[in-house]
Amino acid sequence: xxxxxxxxxxxxxxxxxxxxxxxxxxxxxxxxxxxxxxxxxxxxxxxxxxxxxxxxxxxxxxxxxxxxxxxxxxxxxxxxxxxxxxxxxxxxxxxxxxxxxxxxxxxxxxxxxxxxxxxxxxxxxxxxxxxxxxxxxxxxxxxxxxxxxxxxxxxxxxxxxxxxxxxxxxxxxxxxxxxxxxxxxxxxxxxxxxxxxxxxxxxxxxxxxxxxxxxxx
Length: 217
Fold this sequence. Notes:
The protein has two domains: 2-116, Rossmann fold, CATH 3.40.50.720; 130-214, Alpha-Beta Plaits (2-Layer Sandwich).
């Protein structure tokens, strides 16, 4: 397998190291990284500007089965996704996204999977709070952790996170517009993702009462 990585910052470099450790041939493209850095990591480097059309005229994308677009600018990422899909319709494309508003645009451009960094960060924090041993104990006691997205029209809009606990659940944290919120006096806004813990019957009740959509696992 051969994978192309566009961008060699923290995300791109971490992805490259994991792929290389698993024996995957990895080629990275970055306009500023030192060639010795990539070579030390075990990756082949193409030093180029991926936003330049000349680069896309010269590179042979058909040699790659997959690409990781790990650019800090979402608009540049969308351009690259379009270019990749145009040159290789069968390529699997995984993209980093910094703003949730651009997720659908990346999928429309041809990305197969979009990773939204603020959301991933929130999920990692929640995973740390509720480790596996705690999860097992909670399951035994009929307690679950669920993340809800607050939709337009929900009756909790404008209320505080603390007020959700009136429904018999415990609020863990919320992610609103990329910001992780643990202060329970914070107001709930449309689009916020709220993680709550509670007994399953209470979670069912809050889902029905507050018109919130449970996220898919």
